[in-house]
Amino acid sequence: MKAITVMEPGNMQMLTAEEPAITKPDQVLVQVKASGICGSDVHVYHGSNPYAIYPRVIGHEASGIVKAVGEAVTDLKPGDGVVLEPITYCGTCYACRTGHHNVCRELKVLGCTVDGTFREYMAVPRSQVYAFDTKKMSYIQAALCEPYTIGAQANWRGNVQKGDFVLVHGAGPIGLILADTAKSRGAVVMVSEPNEKRLAMAKEFGADYTVNPDKENLEAVVMELTSGEGVNVIFEAAGIPALLSGSTALLSPAGRLVAMTFGEEPIPINFKEVNAKELTLLGSRHQYQKFPEVVEYLPSKLDHVDKLITHVFPAESFEKAFDVLADKTSGAGKVILTFD
User: Fold this and answer.
1) 230-250, pLDDT tens digit by residue?
2) Nearest to 294 by CA among 308, 283, 305
3) In terms of C-beta density within 10 A (0-12 exposed, 13-18 middle, 19 or more buried), how is residue 201 classed?
4) Less crowded by CB within 10 Å, the N or C end of the chain?
């Protein structure tokens, strides 16, 4: 089978690998149909992901079709459409015992610490597979279930409530999904983004206000719109650590800051403001138990899904796909690889 593999940072190849087989009664053999390229895949390729182990088949945003099931799997059958959860966990450590399986000490992540979804077939535990109705979503559309779980997790972490004023830094795919999800929860949403095309797209994803921070004073706009109080929740999805440092000044008392970004160096935070306003600083990593809700509601958001998916390439054209994603003039949103 075909398997797109990063041999070492900067060296990505399509290899021929042995097709996996079911070896445990609780496994499901999945033929991958579509898989999205995430920024984290790019980081593994470039060598900037601190958790990556090489060589590695990358990819973790995927949909496919069930080809076979182990004898203990009774609720799936060959031909069912499925999406894949990219994490597995031990179930016994403190994080797992307290409902935080996504930060398990033994966490394994597809495309990073174990081989991922940029291959034709995968044998995975039943716990990593969620069925979806192929009459309601195509395989290409269903590949966005995983990114939408990231939006669901981050909004849950930020406890976004109806009427909250939310600021999203960045209007890439994850930023747009964060805005879309916050709007669905009843929030007033502002998106800050210097790219005018992405900024225009943010309005289509429910942003009530958009700001180009290269042309406007973001803090002045925030304070004007919130009568000097500040926003209630900030999502940093631009990948710029300095925006986290500046976020405490933009938050209202009792506000929440959700960091989607991690820097190579420690990021300074003004704890005078954190304490004075009793702010909550939150990390967000992967997701936990968000797939069922996303699989259920995503068919109602296919207009947004189709806007996010700007390019689709056959897996054999993976190099071109990565080039398009890296090209800031290409207008790329979510780039999908298909496996036939």
Assistant:
1) 999 999 999 899 999 999 999
2) 305
3) buried
4) C
